[in-house]
Amino acid sequence: MSDAPLPARYYPPGGDAHGHPVRLAWDDGSLLILRDDGPGLRVPQHALTVEARGFNHEQWALSWPQDDSAHLLMVADRDIAPLKRVAPGLFQVGEQHRRAGRRRLGAGLALLVLLPLVLAGLLLLFLDPVVDRVVDHIPPEVEQQIGAVVLARTRAEGPLIEDGPAHAALQAIATRLARPGEKLDFYLAQRPTINAFAAPGGVVVVHSALLKEARSAEEVAGVLAHEIAHVELRHSMHQLARAAGLRLIVAALFGDYGTLGGWAAQLGELKFSRDAEREADLRALDRLAETGIDPQGLLAFFETLSRQEGADGLRPPALFSTHPATAERIEALRAVLARRPQSAAQAIGIDWQNVRTALAAP
């Protein structure tokens, strides 16, 4: 063993709970305990029990029975190496327990680090189903209040067209599409972007540029049918809840309409999922067929915008960016329409050139 004895603390039976500083040495198969405040002790190896203790097993406890009492020594792991070299057998079992304990501690610390990541992953995995279940139980009155907030924000952002040929045309198409007792309100916003969006509570906002771009009432009817499908399927409410998380749901349930308004203002920029768009397209075709309007109008409008985008090299219209009408989506519409039996369609009977001319007037 080293010439310099090891520092340790000795806890004799019935002694001070804080222990006494001692020094340890090894001599001929026995542990020598050198005390400054009393006579030294000699403990044979066979009487000693050694255990690793403390956080991360950074201490060693050496104990032995004597005179029906238990004696204890505590030695820091950083100081114990010389004793391990001369009496390795003492520490064999303790080292095994120490390594196993450190593995358990390492696994526990890794779990503590990974647990927030796992919980975050699980939250992302299950958030949509949870949000959907909660949204399904939000009363219609709350949705109508959110729709009112959206309408107020729309009015604040720019003028609405509330009379004239374009307004009358929009209302006529909406009346043709609506079912008896259905709560739907259509508004025409004077905006330069080609867009339309549906808000909770049955509020549908259409930009004037969309009517100017359309070539017929049937094309606008297709777009409106698509937006009505979003209302019917509550896509807007679900998308708002996903974007805002549970904050929006709590705000809705507790009537915090200021918070609702802040999120509702983003409704025109929300992007629906591919599945939601496909579902709304199919539901729109059903409604168009049900009301005797040519379902080809929806496809024709998207094809027109797609051709213009490709020819002009311009950014996609707002309707495309918020409701992505990709080539895949257009092809899907073509395929569905090709499979569906053609039914007799009744023209909406609106002079569309008159509508476009009225919107072009200063």
Provide a compact summary of the structure.
This protein has two domains: 6-103, Pleckstrin-homology domain (PH domain)/Phosphotyrosine-binding domain (PTB) (PH-domain like, Roll), CATH 2.30.29; 138-360, no CATH class. The chain contains 14 helices and eleven strands.
User: What share of the residues lie within helices?
Assistant: 40-55%
Q: What is the count of helical runs?
A: 14
Q: Uncertain segments of ≥5 residues (pLDDT<50)?
A: none
Oligomer: single chain
| Largest sheet, strands/sense/barrel | 7 strands, antiparallel
Number of strands: 11
Q: State the separation between the terminal residues, measured CA to CA.
A: 103 Å
Strand order of the largest sheet: 4-3-2-1-7-6-5
Task: Summarize model confidence as the mean pLDDT.
Answer: 81
Globally, the shape reads rod-shaped
| The number of domains | 2
Strand content: 15-25%
Class inferred from helices and paired strands: alpha+beta
Order of helices and strands: EEEEEEEHHHEHEEEHHHHHHHHHH
**Backbone CA Rg:** 39 Å
Keywords: Hydrolase, Membrane, Metal-binding, Metalloprotease, Protease, Transmembrane, Transmembrane helix, Zinc
Protein name: M48 family metallopeptidase
Domain Peptidase M48: 167-335
GO cellular component, one term: membrane
